């Protein structure tokens, strides 16, 4: 039997941990055009929130998140008093992921869908895992009133 890839194992671990795939996009991200439009909107939102942060250039849901700094920048944009972004280094991946995920859980109430060990084990994060995590973070920030959405 062929061995599953590291990406497939990462996806499987998330699905096992949380009892299956999420049903549909995060709240308030539903727009005409389907999943591709939702992904584009979420990516644009991440790009806008992290614009101007050193060592961060969000272009996709995989390699752009590899150092952990994009997660840190995104969270820092909402919680600037949580940590000193300027002191972070791209090479300190384990520290960056731990800081981001802890901040998201403590400040935004975001379920820890990603594990630090899984993120540092892979040189390029799995796009589906990152996308799922960012949807959950967005949902939590909306629930806390930190992200304004258009009323329908």
TrEMBL record:
Q: Does the keyword Coiled coil apply?
A: yes
Where would I find the Calponin-homology (CH) domain in this sequence? 36-142
PROSITE patterns for the chain: CH
> One matching Pfam family, short form?
CH
UniProt xrefs under InterPro entries: CH_dom (IPR001715), CH_dom_sf (IPR036872), F-actin_Monoox_Mical (IPR050540)
- Gene3D superfamilies listed in its UniProt record: Calponin-like domain
Identify the SMART domains for this entry. Answer: CH
Entries under SUPFAM superfamilies matching the protein: Calponin-homology domain, CH-domain
Q: Which UniProt keywords apply?
A: Coiled coil, Phosphoprotein
Give the family, as the similarity comment puts it. Answer: Belongs to the smoothelin family.
Recorded protein name is: SMTL1 protein
Record the organism: Atlantisia rogersi (Inaccessible Island rail)
Name the gene that codes for it. Smtnl1
């Amino acid at each position: 039997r062929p061995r599953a890839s590291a990406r497939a194992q990462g996806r499987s671990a998330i699905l096992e941990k949380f009892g299956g795939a999420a049903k549909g996009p995060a709240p308030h991200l539903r727009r005409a055009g389907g999943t591709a439009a939702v992904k584009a909107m979420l990516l644009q939102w991440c790009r806008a929130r992290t614009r101007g942060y050193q060592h961060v250039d969000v272009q996709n849901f995989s390699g752009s998140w590899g150092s952990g700094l994009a997660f840190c920048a995104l969270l820092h944009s909402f919680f600037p008093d949580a940590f000193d972004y300027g002191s972070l280094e791209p090479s300190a991946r384990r520290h960056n992921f731990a800081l981001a995920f802890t901040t998201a859980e403590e400040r935004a109430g975001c379920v820890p869908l990603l594990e630090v060990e899984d993120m540092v084990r892979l040189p390029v994060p799995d796009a589906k895992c990152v996308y799922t995590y960012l949807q959950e973070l967005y949902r939590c920030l909306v629930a806390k009133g930190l992200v304004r959405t258009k009323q329908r």
